[in-house]
Fold this sequence. Notes:
Number of helices: 17
Shape: globular
Helix content: over 70%
Number of strands: 0
Structural class: mainly alpha
Order of helices and strands: HHHHHHHHHHHHHHHHH
Radius of gyration: 25 Å
Strand content: under 5%
Largest sheet: none
Oligomer: single chain
Amino acid sequence: MLKFVGRRLVQMVFLFFLFLTLVFFLLEAQPGDITAQFLDPTIPAEIRAQLVERLGLDGGVWSRWWNYITNFVTGNLGVSFQQYPRPVLDVITERIPRTLFLFTFATLLSYVIGFTLGKRLAWKRGGFSEHAITVSGVLLYTVFYPWFAIIMILFFASGLGWFPINGFLNPEFWRGAPYTGNEVFGQLIFSLLITGLVFGFTAWFARRQEERSTARVVRVIGYGTSLAFLVIFWLVRGDMRPFALDIVHHSILPIVTLALIAFAGVMLLTRGSMLETLKEDYILTAQAKGVPEKDIRDKHAARNALLPVVTSFVLGLAFIIGGGVVTETVFSWPGMGSLLLTATVAEDVPVATGALAFVGILALLAHLIVDILYAILDPRIRIQTGN
């Protein structure tokens, strides 16, 4: 396994720099004169030349490409043309947690609901509920997403007034706040990350227990500890809690909208994979041995049906930035998707290239994680890798 991971890492480095090169030249090939857009044409030629050099727009294309690649290795992504002289890395590190927060929660919610419903629909076939849920899933899976998002805003935000119409926070509520939005958001991410890690470890450890009573005790203690940490953390940070709740309130509608669209595809994928798995001989053998139906469904069939779902899940996380363009534009969410769109339209090449570079990194890491998870979930793959 270590040799396999090592080979993949070498391949990833090569592919990543090939990807960077392709992105750089595609953005350079855009029509228009960037210097005319970001530099005042009325200024003297000497000052204009200095500004062009300061922005890194002097020299030929190959010279700029080589400078970009060498600077990228050292962590220097350049400066934003639109927010000059702010470094691109600062712009991206401010935006990417917001996108990860939004899409990670939406993806987790959609996969938990979709996988649970998919395996139950495949196990109990032929009922009215199966047909109703399947038809609903197909409708959601094929709906035009921007239209659906606008309908959700009109109904739940504008009509019922349950949620804010758009944005990351309420500017009026934050006027005179002792904290910045990034400070509160950072604390929110930290508390949720610790809670999620404890929750995930508890679920993994409980599944390894052979006795159901022991697993139940582990879940009660672990889940209770994670929730207690979250409650105590925000009780201690009582002065910051209203502002954190404002951010959460703004994020609920886009998360639910994304989850409703995404869960349908997961449910249909799980159902199809589960139906194929239930035809295998080892399922018939387990039924002949008298293994309880719940164990056959969850430990035998669902575990093997999980492989394509895991692939879809990890690869879906890899492309959240690209998928966030529509969502963050509709909901006015200041994340990486909206940043990529505005940077591309405004020809802010350093920011656009930096954002796409993170897309490439996430995609390559996702493929590596999928390979490793396959080896964990399927023993046959471990044998083929030599472990």
